[in-house]
Amino acid sequence: MLTRRQTLALGAAAAIGVHSDARAQAKTEISLSRQPGILYMPTHVIEKQKLIEKHAEKLGVAGVTTKWVNFSNGGAQQDALLSGSVDLINTGTGPLLVLWDKSRGRVKGICASSAQPALLLTRDPRIKTLKDYKEGDKIAVPTIRVSTQAILLQIAASDLFGPDKWNHFDAMTVQLGHPDALIAMKNPSHEVKSHFAAPPFQFYEQQQIPEVRVVASSADIMGSPLSQGQFMTTTGFAEANPKIVQALRNAAEEAKGFIESNTPEAVEIYREVTGDKTPSDQILTMLKQPGMMEWNIYPQGTMKFAEHLVRTGGVKTTPASWKDYYLPVAHDLSGS
Questions:
Q1: pTM of the model
Q2: Percent helix, strand, coil in the chain (nearest 5)?
Q3: CB atoms within 10 A of CB 134
Q4: What average pLDDT score do residues 155-165 get?
Q5: Distance, CA of 119 to CA of 32 (rounded, Å)
Q6: Alpha-carbon distance 159 to 156, whole Å?
């Protein structure tokens, strides 16, 4: 299920995790990471409005500073968290479950931040449905085998071809960050003709590539919304910095409310922080699409992911509920 680099990193984390947790100390300089995309808008609002700093001070922790780091895929984020290069990351359900399992429970979620639908797009005229993919086709995903998109394809394969065929699409996936996948999709001669995208890249492709069509969505595959962005950290950091963790949850909740009540201003913050040159009115139009204003902080659809990963061997530990891989700071929420 894992690349060799991820397996080594996770194995090292499991081996040294106890010692690392024991050395964890309270911090006021906090580093966080995210990936490109509009689904990370809550993190852009949190950064711009210094909401972690604000809520930490309210909780009695003064002088907190934050540094945000962008990574092109969840695999790089996982490595950064496990190596201690960053303190917290915001990425998908698949990485959270794999990290929780491989680190023997020493990585857990804090809260969700978005559950916008991801779309599988193609510019191949032959492909109309998932059943039309065949050997040799290439589907871009952020991280092979363990990204949210890769696991969605596995769940779809189980439903279409039977539980023992869950890895039907794995050999067709190639690892490309969303910006690079967009470039590939716009190149008629590129071997990658399909991209399991995340917002806003799925909309850019639909706008800029006339022949692109939707093959499937995460909502189709899951039958419900799925948390695409969620904050997570090590239990060592959480135990040493409980007020920072609480401040982050409070910040995520405030960012949700701000985006919902001040959407145009939130879009301008997103454009400023990311450098996205897409006109504001186009982004606002994107956010009017079904499911695009899904910013709830409670986890959604994660147990279905967990059940799939347990069945296919991607996760060895069977969680009794989503609260097993989320910190107590989230346990009052209504998750799934």
A1: 0.85
A2: 50, 15, 35
A3: 9
A4: 96
A5: 26
A6: 5
